[in-house]
Amino acid sequence: MAAAIDADVVHGFIMLGDLEGLQAFAPPKFDWTQAIGEKELPALMYVIHYNVTQTEALRKQSLKMVEWLLKVGADPRQKLPADHPFRWQIHKNNNPEATKFIVEYGGHSAVSLAFAYLQQAQKRTGNADWSQLEAHLKAVLAILSSSATANSSFGADVTVPRSTLDLWESMRDSTTSHSVIFECSDGKVSAHDQDSSSSGVSLFLDLLYTSSTREDPDHSTMLEALDLAHRWQIHGVVRTLCKALCDMIDAKSFVAVAETASLKGLEMLARACVHFGSQDEEVQAMLQKGSLPAAVRKLFEPAHAISGEQELEQEQEQEQKPKREHQQEQRQEQSKSKQNWDKNWVEDEFTAVSRTVFIIIFFGGLGSVLWWFGFDHE
């Protein structure tokens, strides 16, 4: 019920063109890929739909809404089912019959829907002037294109020669290269990761060197590899594993995957978990009983629950507090010792300089006396 109300609120603010209201009331973990409203369209597609016939001022505001939706997780490539029944007709009020055109929404994404309207407008049916609509749609497409370009470095797939893949695999199979141990001032530092299974490490190395694997790992192995990739900030491997895990979410894997997504702040994976959990009866039952981990509950109640990550940080804070206090005391003692040393050094230097000046004056005076008595006065 709460998810349905959230969806209605989001749809309402989009319909009003109120970006500030949408930002204020949209849940932080809202699934922007779900169909909302009576027409059952994704949020991004609604923004395009409602602003086809709006004023120029409202269209300009809608561009900011498009930018924000892309930032929070709306997917411009997401397509409606091919048999989606919704269609929309627009026309000029001064000549409705001659200027009307219809756009079928089935099978379209937000990008292709904008192009569909643009193509119809450019036909100038009935000599209609759709120049303002065309300018608006081109601005929308420019924003959608820039978003796709920004994400292309992480999400684009490329084709490589088989010989290159063989080279990568040979490097990956060179296990001696992964067993390096460095000798440092603090002792030995090993590249081994003792808290990860061999299958998890192997999957991580497969993706690191080849972006693929010949194995068929389960979700536990993928989560171990994800932990390694996230720990070492290998963002490409993190994204690859998140995309794969999105397709593996079921009642059995949900808790482990959702907890990882929440603790590590993996937005794409978290959205997929929320989408599954909001529709799965077993997950909803656990949510009602309060049997889900705190980090998982955080995905569904972001405004109230404390995430598992925050709890862990609080525990670590308490554990580290005595250590930090001890280190602070040591620094204070070192500072006092340094101040005493500086003071003693100044005093010693002053004594040495005074002694030197005295010696110079003494021997200088003695030399003058001897010179005086030894001078042949006439």
UniProtKB/TrEMBL annotation:
Residues 309-340 are annotated as: Disordered. Residues 318-340 have a biased composition (Basic and acidic residues). This is BTB domain-containing protein. The chain crosses the membrane at residues 357-375. The keyword Membrane applies. Keywords: Membrane, Transmembrane, Transmembrane helix. It comes from the Eukaryota.
